[in-house]
Amino acid sequence: MLRQETIFVTGASGLIGKATVRYLLEKGYAVKALLRSGSLSPFYAHKNLRIVRGSMEEILNCVSEMRGCEAVVNLAANQYHPTESFVVNVKGVAELIEAMKKSKVTRLIHISTLAVRLAHKGVYGKTKSQADDLVRKSGLDWTILRPSLVYGEDPKTIFTTIAAFVKSLPFVPVLGNGEQPFRPVWVEDVAEAITRSVNNLKSFGKEYDLGSKEALTLNELIGKIQKVLRKEKQPIVHVPYVLSIMGALILREIMKDPPISVDNVLGSNQPTDCRPEKAYRDLKWNPIGVDQGIKKVLIGDLKGRLPVAIVGLGKMGTLHGAILSTFPEVRVTALVDKDVKLGKTILSMGMAGRFYTSLEEACKHEEIGAVFITTPTFAHKEIIQECLRRKLPFFVEKPVFTQWSDFLGLPQEKKKGLITAAGYFYSFRRPYVLAKELIDKRILGRLQSFRARLLISEVFREKHGWIFRKELSGGGVLMNPGPHVFGVLEKFFGRPEEVLASTRKIYSREVEDEGRINLTYKNGLSGEVFASWSVKGVPLTAVRVEVIGERGKMAVAEEGISLILKRGAKVANSLKGIKTQKRGKGVFIPVAQMPAPKEPTFVLSPAAGGEGYTLEDRAFISSILAKKKFPYDLDFAARVEKTIALCYQSAEEGRTIRGKRGVYR
Amino acid sequence: MAKMKQQIVFFEEGKTLPSGSVLAAPNMVAYIRDVLDVGPIGAVVKRFIKLPVLDMVRLGLRNLPHLLKIVGKDFVSGLLILVEIELLKSKKAKIASVVLTDQVSDLGIAFGNNVLYDRFIKLAHAYEKDAGIWTNNFKTTAIRLGKWRLRPDFMVVPQETGRDLWETSGIKIGVIENKAELVFYQATAKNEERSGGSRLLRLPTT
After folding, report:
1. Looking at the domain covering A6-160+183-220+272-293, what would its CATH class be?
2. CA geometry: angle at A539 spanning A535 and A542, to 5°?
3. Which end of chain A is more exposed for a tag (fewer CB within 10 A), N or C?
4. The domain A426-653 belongs to what CATH superfamily?
5. Has the ipTM of the complex gone over 0.85?
6. Cβ(A52)–Cβ(A76) below 8 Å
7. Nearest CA to CA, how far is B145 from chain A (Å)?
8. Which residue of B lies nearest to A63 if distances are taken between CA atoms?
9. Strand bridging mode B193-195 / B181-186
10. What pTM was computed for the model?
């Protein structure tokens, strides 16, 4: 049931603030979240959430916003700055109390710190201690909560700093001996305790420590983080206490936002005596264990997510890795590449998963439910065979093989029933999807001819990468990026009967830079294809297909579809609801006006067809989860690559090649 | 709503940038073209050696604290060197601000790499330029930056991005209206409810 109570939350953008706002909303409260002017809201829109712009320095301006609120949760704090800490933590609290009284809000949940108990307090402990006194004497219905070390997903916490050290350094520096016990508590549990105390009469006028059931030292906490991140052998280096204090003082002087503060050093080297039992009892609060919490923060909730390995961490591996990282139903568990340094770079990008130098090794240590093969073409064969051997669904970038005969070498019995995909992402780009629909709905009537172009400005002198070595890539522009245009033609018209091709080397020594192909189909359709990577003025791959039918003609390209229909020809139903622009004798359908994907789509590089990659990956993952065949699978790839193979044969033999029955599979 | 037009440009070797324009950095299309030829490190070195000696020294000194990371092929450190080289090479053009290109910024958001944005904003400010983030996924990016408590000076979004989303974000927005033209909008009090002196933004519901 939706409650109508509104809670005013200060410090809403902080670690605890973000979790508390979310938790309150989940529990049906309405929330007014105080954020500094100009800061970006960390919250998705919610009908019960309102953002109030302001700050603790001018909290008295928020009186009218507070009016009618059930309670105020004060999470605003400045932890490090010698003067600003006082302004926010003490003066701000005094004015907050005044604002509450003016707005007739009587309930205050004030978040303090265990640092107030330290024998030698830093600026945070001192100012929070003064603020606690103000709260006690406020005459409001107050509750003071004192969490131990709070951990969660936030880049600016001690926990995150330690985790970053574990991930990136050869050792973990610890300020002092790291032997003081404390009770680290998961931020979501703190948010729950705050929410539970809002209407809990028992908690009025009381002070509670918030901590986990398990007391452990900093050294032990680091050990647990290392265990989760599989860095158990990493040494811990203890920096002597005095040196740590001096270091923190220096950092404070030279850095605006130091990673370590004097308060951190003081806090981690003195006992705080956290006693959370009263909170467990009064608030009926039951925080999760530290091991479980650390896993949730560092790895995330893994249940029900498809574990995926990415093999090949170059440009395409990064692209698919980024897309997969945005899918809630997927978790990347393994990153595989022979190049260890490249692995390090990819991990430094923030990609999830552990690095391995072979798929075999990854399979030994990780759970893997699907594989994305994004290595150079020459390395595909071995990995595909490994996937087939292990019956692992896989996606492989196109072209699949350097020579078509490799398709014939795949064990049919292993392939049967296995979900596979080849990276023909043009099949998912809006213009080509709509064009196929229009062709199938016979908007052009019987098809007569077509003209296709694949152009990109890439080669204007001899180049040296693997793509330019025939034994490694299988060929030039027809193999890479040629499959884009041949994939579109396969999707539109199926397989050709006859192929007549010529190729030309302009700059490259081993592979062709240009290809001209005539294709003839069974139903009388014929067309020509021109592919070149040596034309100027085309920075991104451009695939344009003009189709002529008995009722008109259509041109499809990345930016949209042009359609000219003969007088009397009826527009198919599929154009209904799509906005068209008049252009010359016909109409133009810009890509933005074409039917958008149903689900929100995270798009990388839209100019290069990013949406197509996302939709392709989503379709493949959905196929695996639904155990359904993927339409652009290995068999589709075999048909496309057979056409390319026939082009090479024709160019070499200087004659028309007829595709024999049975050679396509 | 205040409105202002500026040109958005990519750095190209040998091309003069229009004064007062917004530099989109790094130019990933040009970089990837070079990577295919000379590899990722070679492409950076190729750019570095074309810098004047003084700029080489400046770049070296500024990046000294990140030396270990650079040697270890850290993504953010390497990428920001590319940005810095383009900033140094654009000195004469007196560009107004620098925006992190969408290919890179969307990648960083997908991977949850907050360090990229933090260091990019600091780098732009060190060169006394406004720092912008160009994204094709405005909602996700704005929320993630908010979670990380990072605030660029402006964000660049494609025209298709829902106006209701960015009008209420409270940040200066540049919308790409033509291929190379940015139209800036700054949310003003008209779009915000004023209440008791504090500014109240109503978030759009999804």
Report:
1. alpha beta
2. 75
3. N
4. Dihydrodipicolinate Reductase; domain 2 (3.30.360.10)
5. no
6. no
7. 7
8. B196
9. unpaired
10. 0.81
